[in-house]
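Troubleshooting: if your tokenizer reports a length mismatch, compare your output against this known-good record of 316 residues.
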Amino acid sequence: MTRPTKPEMIESARKSCAATAVGIPARACRLATEEKALEEHRSSADNYALGHTPQDIQRLQLLGRIYQTFTRRAFAEAGITTGMKVLDIGCGPGEVSLIAADMVGETGSVLGVDASADMLQVAKARAQAAGHAHVSFIAADLRTLTLDEHFDALVGRFILMHLPEPEATLHHLTQCVRPGGIVVFQEYDLSSHEDASSPSAPLWEQARKLSTLPWQRAGGNIHAGMQLPSMFHAAGLPVPHLAYEAAIGADRDWPGFEMQAADVRMFLPLIVQSGLATEEEIDIDTLAERLREETVSRSRAARLPVVVSAWARTSL
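Known-good structure output:
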């Protein structure tokens, strides 16, 4: 089933809000406010990803530290190796592109694609600093991307969950892969908070919800990870191999505390505008340390969202 596009969600919320004048509950107005806030957040997302502030740079480094092992493992399981040509879609600041570049070596190549030219400036600078001359980047709309070459592998991380029609886009992108080529995607499954900490840690649970509920209420896909098999099927791909894993920690040095706080910080304007919490209640500058103390002082374990990896080969 095709999810509504952002404009359709906004228009629906506006109609619902207008209907409150004739007695429909005010919840529709709140949803409209949340979607408006999400639009504003998305419009400024490029500035966040560019790492213009110390907090943004720290989050990018944390993402690399926490998810690098997951991505390398999935790529290796899928068969990505030396000499391959890899297409990384929704590459953002280049985290996944650089992992692929290490794995294919100088005899291979990596092309990163993202809609944001500004974000790609960061990716190019990072690739140059790493000495990866075999990595290049282009700005393009994934839905209409057309390339004159075929690739050995198509990869993406945390991108399909943001697309209004992921199945159609995935089908389109597989046309860039050679027969028998590899397709690998990793997506979050944000649907469960029940076992995010054990024994239960109230502050951790609240932080997880604050970094998920705004996205969910505005129509974001919190089930993308578990939907990867159906996405692959709809795109004409074989049943994928799967992995289900999450970053988990209990020691004081675990970077997940900073990661969870950074996720809340990313959505902070939306959280406040939608009435989920105030800035004073969240106290974002001390959140990571409070999460750490809550977990470590009571010998708890805490985890970040589940990551589902899926990989398959295109038909020969």
